[in-house]
Amino acid sequence: MEPKVVSTTPFEGQRPGTSGLRKKVRMFQQPHYLENFVQAIFDTQSELRGGTLVVGGDGRYYNRQAIQTILRMAAANGVNRVLVGRGGILSTPAASCLIRKHKTQGGIVLSASHNPGGPEEDFGIKFNAANGGPAPESVTEAIYARTQTIDAYRTLEAPVIDLDHLGAQRLGAMEVRVLDPVSDYAALMESLFDFNAIHQLFNSGHFRMRFDAMHAVTGPYAVDILENRLGAPPGTVMNGVPKEDFGGGHPDPNLAHAHDLVALTQGPGALDFGAASDGDGDRNMILGKNFFVTPSDSLAVLAANAHHAPGYKAGIRGVARSMPTSQAADRVAEALGVECFETPTGWKFFGNLLDAGRITLCGEESFGTGSDHVREKDGLWAVLFWLNLLAVRQQSVSDIVHEHWRGFGRNYYTRHDYEAVDSAAAEGLMDHLRILLPELPGKRLGDYQVDYADDFAYTDPIDGSVSKSQGIRIGLEGGSRLVFRLSGTGTQGATLRVYLESYEPDPARHDQDTQEAMAPLVLIARELAQIEARTGRREPDVVT
Length: 544
Ligand code: VG1
Ligand code: CO
What we know:
Elements: E1 3-7, E2 21-24, H1 25-29, H2 33-44, E3 52-57, H3 63-76, E4 81-89, H4 92-101, E5 106-110, E6 122-128, H5 137-147, E7 152-156, E8 167-171, E9 174-179, H6 183-192, H7 195-203, E10 209-212, H8 218-229, E11 237-238, H9 259-264, E12 273-277, E13 284-288, E14 291-293, H10 295-305, E15 318-322, H11 328-336, E16 339-343, H12 351-355, E17 361-364, E18 368-371, H13 379-393, H14 397-408, E19 410-421, H15 423-436, E20 444-445, E21 448-455, E22 458-459, E23 466-467, E24 472-476, E25 481-486, E26 494-504, H16 514-529, H17 531-535, E27 542-543
Parallel strand pairs: 3-4, 3-5, 4-9, 10-11, 10-12, 15-16, 15-17
Antiparallel strand pairs: 1-7, 2-6, 5-6, 8-9, 12-13, 13-14, 17-18, 19-26, 19-27, 20-21, 21-24, 22-23, 24-25, 25-26
Helix pairs in contact: 2-3, 2-5, 7-13, 10-11
Bound molecules: alpha-D-glucose-1-phosphate-6-vanadate (VG1) and cobalt (II) ion.
């Protein structure tokens, strides 16, 4: 098994986006496409030579083939050992957990997260560093730069590695160890949450829940943790068998895509609790009986109640949220007297703050919540945190959130997505907003006066790196906000995201319908950005 060197030429557009390189499967299947990107990782991350690498993915179409390619290339590039999840399966948070627990030099995670899977759909790859987190921009930029000059990659001629049986195998001089993808992760969860209290809640006879794994990676994790370890009745996990095409759906846990689960929490006979996770297991949706918890509120409620979970009983050090996430968590941080950070979209921006011990909890409006236990957002972790809270507080989801609003006020929140918009039109819309920015402060928009308007830039408080143009932020009097940005995870045209937030301190006004409460702001956003004129779209494709 001699390493061989294969000549290649660069592909355009291999710059990682919000979370790795995501493209259509067909793109990845072109000869040398995946190989070039993987070689760029090995060429720029020299500590992998002689080191240990974690490899796994969300099980989508092309996962197994990509893993075989990566294993052969890892062996040819002098990696000493690869830890891979059985069947090639690792949820994103479990990959992060393994990197940290086994102190590896990094990991390669294969996923396009919430995007659909299948031969005509999406695939993705990203590199996580030794802290378990997505590589920071300095690293992703170095990888990208390498893809633009690459002229060869190294691989081995070797038989296919058996990924379906636990144990060690050799590939040239490298060891491939196939691990149970669930056990280390489940043990970590058990160390953070009160499993006895949750067990009792399941046994109380008056608590019914479902977890929707959406035919994606969390199925095996949820069955093991919820049903086997915590004693939830069999069938609690729905759509629990991972499929290469996620059963044809979008594995995106939101009100639009997890409609079956949402229906189970509504009307007569509604469940007490519903939860779902996404393709790679890092997102979560939390539902109560006839009640939806916005991800922004979820972060705020968890921050305010963290001391109820054993892993956080000493309290939290600080909180961070992505810029478009509502400011609900800021109020909690203020009340607790801890720091609060506003970062650009994408989990990679939380890594330094977590490593430095400045924050314990962090979250994004896009159904992402997490803590310093790993360096990725973590879907099942959030679900277990909520179950821990419900078990300890003995209240319904709705009661807990209403009580939270009474104490802190309510941040009404909605996100409107316009998908597969013409890229030039979307860029034009953002440029138009950028030109408007200087004249906005002090101006009236509908009933609101503009406090500030900027193109969000972030200086990392730990390493001083600067990230510019992270979205248009328009702050209105009274704490309301409009935010506009273009997605960095889409694979077709551009996706315009419009994020709207309105603050309501008065408890008498905490039970309005969200879309009704937000309607005036929605109109302002549409007009200001000239959405219909510039994109031809009257209505958003997805409202969450
Ligand atoms: C989206 C979300 C962002 C999230 C990212 C990756 O990015 O908005 O908050 O971190 O997806 O999540 P964008 O650039 O499309 O808005 V996941 O679960 O797809 O890894
Ligand atoms: Co995801």
